[in-house]
Amino acid sequence: MKRIFPSEMNLDPIDFYDQIRTPHIDRPWLLLNMITSIDGSTHISGTSGGLGGPADQKVLGTLRSFADVILVGSGTVHAENYRTPHAPGGESGKRRIEREQDQLPRLAVVSGSGNLDPEIPMFDQDELEGAKPLIYTSKNGNKNLPENFGEKAEIVTLGAGPVDLSFVLTDLFDRGAKVVLAEGGPSLNHQLVEAKLVDELCLTISPLLVGGESSGIINGPLFSYPHQFQLNGLATEDKFLFCRYLSK
Fold first, then answer.
1. Alpha carbons 72 and 66: distance in angstroms, whole number
2. How many CB atoms lie within 10 A of CB 220?
3. 235, exposed or middle or buried, with CB in 10 Å at 0-12, 13-18, 19+?
């Protein structure tokens, strides 16, 4: 990977993305990671995999190595056929140990409706290496969850309305999470940004033009006001552009 801002240097992704991420008084540091095509599409035929490549996958693994929890929306969990994360190896795993983190991050899913398929890979107990996934849902969503779902995941039931993401992050903080990595989708991203919960945005720009109709990395009503981020780092590898932004 070649860093081109703030100065030019060849370095490993772990060194490009490694930085001090200090949690807040009552919630973790929230890092949002997304990939988009040149024309702003976040998927090809429903999944982001077609936009990526080896360089992007290495960055994804690197960012996951910093996280105590991976936060994702239920739509993305199904579209991407999510699996439980594996423990990072090499330098990423070594630094994780130095940061005194658990061996691997825990998955947390936001699903207000409770419409979750218990047969997708992330709920396969034979694949599970760490703690069960966390499911944040509403009272009505809890009623929609399949019978005996508590055997596959830890369910946190909130109020009757939409899931309060501020409460989700506070709960994760109380569980010991210092860094949370959000991986979308666009609707969850919109809620996180509007609630002023995003501290860092890592955006990968794929060298592809996709066309068609896509929601982009944010999907929702116009923000109450534009949210400003500051470019903190810029790098390139295999024609991909990797951008790091910090919230101002």
1. 16
2. 14
3. buried
Here the tokens at position 174 are 């109380």
> What six digits make up the tokens of 91?
């330098």
180 close to 11: Cβ distance less than 8 angstroms: no
**Taking the CA atoms of the chain, what radius of gyration do you get in angstroms?**
18
pTM of the predicted model over 0.70: yes
What domains can be seen in the chain, in order of their start residue? 2-247 (3.40.430.10)
Question: Positive or negative CA dihedral for 47, 166, 179, 105?
Answer: negative
As a whole number of angstroms, the distance between CA 177 and CA 171 comes to 9
State which amino acid sits at residue 182: A
Looking at residue 124, what is its pLDDT? 81
Centre a 10 Å sphere on the Cβ of residue 211 and count the other Cβ atoms it contains: 9
24: left (phi over 0), alpha (psi -120 to 50) or beta: beta
- Region of residue 196 (phi > 0: left; psi between -120 and 50: alpha; otherwise: beta): left
Please write the tens of the pLDDT for every residue from 207-241: 999 887 777 899 888 888 889 999 999 999 999 99
DSSP β-bridge partners for residue 5: 234
What are 127-140's pLDDT values in tens digits? 667 788 999 999 98
CA distance 34 to 183: 6
Helix or strand run (H / E) with residue 205: strand 200-205
Per-residue CA distances from 179 to 65, 102, 121, 159 (Å): 10, 12, 24, 25
